Amino acid sequence: MREVEVVGVRVEMPTNQPLVLLREAEGNRYLPIWIGAVEASAIAFAQQGTQAPRPLTHELMRTMIEALGDELTEVRIVDVKDNVFYAQLIFASGAEVEARPSDSIALALRTGTRILCAEDVLDEAGIVAAREEDEEIEKFREFLDDVKPEDFEP
User: Fold this and answer.
1) Which of 27, 44, 82, 134 maximizes the CB count within 10 A of its CB?
2) How many domains is the chain partitioned into structurally?
């Protein structure tokens, strides 16, 4: 397993489909995962530290985990089949729960939990960025500084 970091969310054109972009913490591969608009908003909210007036789903999940006396210790992206990614939530109690990567990432950002990705998933779906792409990714980061979760609503 390789640790990955969330670069951010964006809308891929011309399909208008949101994606979350992950990057190897110690490497040069990026992993794009296409997600839904609601999940894109949840991830953007978490990255920006925005609090909704009422708890949203992932904030509710975080609160429930704490109330039950457990702790999310790892989020793992474990598989990709036919361009569908699979993740697991790993808890201090030893429990493991299957989850969508988008929900797992949103929860990880709210709990400060590290995100790991299976090496074979990175081998199959990861993209090695060239120098020009690194510059494009830096521009994307600048875009993220100004994007609002509402930008992802249909």
Assistant:
1) 44
2) 1
pLDDT at 20: 93
Q: Which three-class secondary structure state does DSSP give residue 26?
A: coil
* pTM metric for this prediction: 0.79
| Cα→Cα distances 152→7, 28, 35, 39, 142, Å | 16, 28, 11, 9, 17
User: Cβ contacts of residue 6 below 8 Å, gap of 6+?
Assistant: 20, 21, 22, 43, 47, 105, 109, 115
**Which pLDDT score is estimated for 13?**
78
Q: What is the pLDDT of residue 107?
A: 93
Query: Of 57, 59, 58, 97, nearest to 75 (Cα)?
Result: 97
Give the Cα separation of 83 and 79 in Å (integer).
10
| Consecutive H or E run containing 134 | helix 131-146
> What is the DSSP code (8-state) at residue 15?
T
- Residue 91 sits in a domain of what CATH number? 3.10.690.10
User: What whole-number distance in Å separates Cα of residue 30 and Cα of residue 87?
Assistant: 17
Helix axis angle, 57-67 to 101-111, nearest 10°:
60
| pLDDT tens, position by position, 131-140 | 555 666 666 7
